[in-house]
Structures are given as C-alpha cells and as structure tokens.
Amino acid sequence: MISLPHTLAAIVLLPLMGFLLNGVFATALGGHRFGNRLAAIVGCGFPIAAFVLTVNALLTLQAGGYAPLIEPLYRWATIGDSTFDVTFYFDRLSAIMTLVVTGVGSVIHVYSTGYMHDDKSHGRFFAYLNLFLFFMLLLVLGRSMLVLFVGWEGVGLASYLLIGFWFDDLANARAGKKAFVTNRIGDAGFLLGMFLLYRACGTLDMDTINAVFMGLAGSVPVVSASLVGLLLFIGATGKSAQIPLFVWLPDAMAGPTPVSALIHAATMVTAGVYLVVRMSGIYMHAPEASQVMAIVGVATAFLAATIALVQTDIKKVLAYSTVSQLGFMFLALGVGAYGVAIFHVVTHAFFKACLFLGAGSVIHALGGEQDIRKMGGLRTRIPITFWTFVIATAAIAGIPGLAGFFSKDEILWYAFASSRGGSPWLWGVAAVTALMTAFYMFRLLWLTFLGPSRMDHAVEHHVHESPLSMTGVLMLLALLSAVGGYFSIPHFLEAQVPLPAIVAEREHYERTLLVVSIVLAFSGLALAALMFGGSAERPERVKRALLPLHRLLSAKFYVDELYERLLARPLVWMSEQVLLRGSDRFMLDGMLNGMAALALRSAGLLGRLQTGSLHLYSLFVMAGIVGALVWSWRHG
Known about the structure:
By secondary structure, this protein is mainly α. Helices cover 72% and strands 3% of the residues.
C-alpha cells in the first residue's frame, strides 16, 4: 500500500487524460502506424494505471477498517445556504464497482488493440473508450447525486459515440440515436427523484440521504420513499434496459464488439443496479417500489430469454441474454438482496465480457460474419476461442462450480424465501427463465462451434485463431468466469447492505431448490444437445410445429413496431401537422409574413402619392387649404 494524495481523483482523471491525448495526438495521426501504436499505448495504459490505483485504494480502505475514504476535490457551486461539491467517496460498494470497471475495462482495451488493429479511426476509438471509462468512474465514485448524474449522462453520450462509431452506415447511426433518446426518457424520472430528495433532505450527498431515511441523521424527511424509489427506478430502467425501456440495448450491437462487451458486461448497463444499491436506505423503506422492481425485473428476465431462444445473430443472442441477466439483478434488488445483486453484477462482468469478446473472436475469424446459421465446425479451427466460450457459457447457464451458478442460485433462493417480498411465483418465473438461459446459450455454443460446418467455402478457407492480444484476454476472463463465484461479495457487503431475513417456514426448502437449480442447468444443456446435436431437420420440424410462436419471438413480440405505431408516428404527426404547419408555418410565419405583406401594400399605396410631379403636389396643397378654410367657416 502506497499513500498517495488525491488517489480517487487520479483514478477518475486518468482515463480522461487518455481521452485528451488520443483525441488530440493519436487521432491527428490516424491511419499511420505510429499513430495507431500511440493510441493503443495511451488507450490501454491509463485504464491499467487506474486499476492499479484502485487496488491501492482498496488496501488503504482495508487498513482503515473499511471506514469510507472521502476526498473533496473542489466546490462546484454555492446557491444561498447550499453548497455543491465535487467529492469522491470510496467504500465497500464503490470499491467493488471501481475494480470491475477498471479491471474488466482495461482487458477490453487490450483486446481492442487486436480487434481494431486495421480500423482507420484507431485513435478515435480508443479516445471514446477512455471517455466512457472516465464518465463511468465519475458515476461510481461521486458522493453527490449531482456528480453521479454527470457521469450518468456522460456514459449516455459516450455510448452514443461508440454504438454509432461506424456512422457511415446509417443503421449504426440510428442505433446510437435510439440508445441516446431512450435513456433520456428514463433520465426524466431520475431528475424528478433527485429534485424531491434535495427538497426533502436539503442535500444530494447519497450517504447523508441514506442516513436520513434510516433515521440516523436528523428527522425522517416528509416525502414518500416509494415515490422517490419509483422515480429513481424509472431512470434505472433506461440505463439497465428494463421493461419498457429495454429496446435500445439489442440495437447497441451496431458498434464494434469490444464496445458491446464494455457496455453490456461491466459498465453502463449496471449503473441502474448500482444506483439502487447506493440508495438502498430509501428502498428499505419503500416496499411498494421494491415490489414493482421485483416484478419488472423477473418479467424482463423472462421476456428477453424467450426472444433469445430464436435469435440468429451471435451478438443479438448475447444482447438479449444481457437484458435477461439484468432482470435477475433487479429481481434480487426488489426482494432486498442488494449484496447478491452486486455479486451477480461481478460474475456477469466476467462471463459476459468473455462471451462478447469470444463472439468478437469468431466474427474476426470469419471476416465479419455474425449469422450462427452460417457457422459450425469451429471447435478445432479456433480452439482457444472455443474452450473459453465453453467455460463462459457454462458459467452463465449455472453449471455448478462456476461463477454464474453461485450468484444466480443466490438470486433464486432470495426470490423464493426473502422476507422482503420473496414468493414462490417469483421463484417459479425466474427458474423457468434460468432453464431457458441454459438452453439458448448451449444452442448458441452448438450452432457456432459444433456440428458440421455451414460456412461458405471462401470464408472457411480463411478461418484462423485470433492474435494473443485477444486470446490472452479471453483466457483471463474464462479463468475469472470459473473462479469468480468464490469471491464472497454478499458477505463483504453485508456490513453496508445486510441480506434480508428468510421466511421461517421456507428455510427447509434451501437444499431442495439448490438441487432444482442444478437440474435446470443440466436440463437446458441436455435439451440443446437433443435439439441440435442430431439431425439438422429436428430444429426445423419444431419450428414448423410452433411457427406462430416462432414468428412472435422472432419479431421480438412486435415491441418496436408497437412503439412505432403508438408513440413515434403520433409524435411525428403532431410535430409536422400541429407544431410545424399549425404553429410554426401558419401562426408564426403567417403573422410575420402577413405584417410584411401589409407593410408592402401600404407602401405601394402611399408610393402612388409620391409621383415627383410639382403640379400634382401644388394641387394637393390647394385642396388642403380649401378644405381647411371650409372646415373653419363651418365651425367658426
């Protein structure tokens, strides 16, 4: 442990320095070998340095008995008696999140050096990645909700830049815009909740707000905890892609694969989960908001899993898997198991980053192909990618001993037995979702790597394993996917966010449900092997037998079309017909153009009087004199 001044500020600002350096120098040298090498060194070096400082900060935290590290940076504003400071806050929760963000973020940067090696905008890509990490760290380490909100909006901006990175393709630009707009809808709820909290508590420091709601600092505020909780949850549904604002996340696959891994695995999509845990003092007194959160979470998990069953784009399968796993996290939050939700955030960061980067290795090997119907037989062609993908797939499916098994089993248990809203029906829906997760993930594994090759001959001829910069990262993440479940994160966080009590009459079901969880994981594996391991006609027969359901799932329940018809089209019509034509063109332009026309016509009429003829002017003068004399005579 090394004592350093402003360690937390350095952790946040290092990626910002990388962004500035790459934005100014490496981008200017874009396309040149030196520029690309400089971009890679700067882009990877600063996040790695931030990770090293985070480890040092964790050791400092541990040496101090886990008393939070508070590091004021500067006073942002003073309004009346209120002050708003930029202060960084490092406790058990932010320590875990910062380690995940800088650690997994760094290895994704390293992976990108190989994946984006030939891209013409190499420097710009690393600049955007560094900017994304800066805002995410600002979000995680900010003590005030105001600082958190700056990071919250910043990751939205950076995700827009990264999702639409290849903006020459209009579809990519639209995907970035969709993510940006959808998140702004959720952010409206976040802002309202923040305003209510400031009015009720007189501060935006989150540790103080939690203490106030817990009755540890002053009187309990006169504001509904459930109302504030619901408003903040609306913001979380945007960032963490829950019903009804989940539609942006699958389209976020338009960006480069490392972007998908960064957004989906460890950073932006977990921001909503982090917010709820950070404000757990409110949610402990908001049973109604917590119940809504649990229902929305389990419904999102189930809905996304059903859509993932039939997806044929390798990245889309993983995208809907992410939405589903986020639903599991919010289910845990809704039943009060905050530490378990963070546990799943961590394990999910490991195996989902491995899966996305493994998918990127497949796409790299196949020259850009993403359709799993055109793959197969890759097991021996790219063996490192295959075996790391196997480990990560088994982890997310809940195979015993791997990371996902521990965190998902904990979620299922608290969904069933928690005294703060757990119920058998929540467990039942989540258990069916876990079965579907195992099935669609092993389906993805089978169609991508096993069975006969379905690749085009031209593609098959060029299949090759990825470079060490990519496969080395895959092996590290596969290792973490295997051992990450042994990190006792719920116990580590229990002093800060204690686990909920268990309903007494449900305690004896724990071992039974553990066995059921294991059976579900292996049943998904067996069902996928049965479906795709035999005749190629078997999946087609099932598809024909369930054709209406298959069409519904392939169309993603027509949610995008429903939004288009009920929201987008009416808003476009109102914008064009009412605001543009009615207000802007008819009223504003009409009034201004009418005044101009009136002035023009008046000038034309008056202009006829100005003929330049002295005789006519003399006649007007005489007529005026005669008129004045007549008026004087009649009124004299």
